[in-house]
Amino acid sequence: MKDLGTATTVIEVGHEHRLADEKSLAMMVEVVRNVEARSEQSKGVTKMAQRRRAWMTSPAKKPTSSLPDTLKAEVERKSADLIVNVLKPKHIQPPPPNEQFNYIIDIGTKWYRHYFYFFSIYACPGPNALSPTFESKFARMEYVGNAKFALYFMRHTGEWVGSYGRLSVDECMEAIQDDAWFVP
Asked: What digits encode the pLDDT tens for the residues 125-149?
């Protein structure tokens, strides 16, 4: 900086020389001070507080043994009986007359690894339907060992929510039949 004796000062910015009045000079000095203050603060960097981990319940341990074939057959037999005698008569209705909305046309089950799923098949009668039918799972039995299952229902967000921890096959079928969370 060179003082010209008047209300202006010549300042050197990079390789250029510019004229600045007192007001803009004061603003530039303030900016330089703020930048220097920030750089000094960053030298003494402190760590941010780390997020605490919340206590959570841990899910049941995965089974170390595979699912016995006799238990698998028992689950299939009892679920087929539940579907034919309870779920289908209760939830499958004739198609609505206006056929504007989706409706259930079938209920079934399937195995995937050590999970046993209950699902419903919906018909899509509208002219803008992407496909004529779709499948929606509503209950899941997870084998946890010793002929016991954890029972889950499908939340409206598409997330499985555990409702029962260690139930026998008969207790699972009874819960799916009576509990309001297990609606196709």
From this structure: 878 888 889 899 999 999 988 889 9
Strand runs labelled E in the chain: 2-3, 8-13, 16-21, 103-112, 115-123, 133-145, 148-154, 160-167
| Tokens describing residue 46 | 């402190």
Distance CA 93, CA 106 (A): 10
**Are 79 and 162 spatial neighbours (Cβ–Cβ below 8 Å)?**
no
> Is the per-residue pLDDT at 63 higher than 70?
no
Give 165-170's long-range contacts (Cβ < 8 A, gap of 24+).
165/60, 166/60, 169/71, 169/74, 169/75, 169/78, 170/78
Q: What is the DSSP letter of 94?
A: P
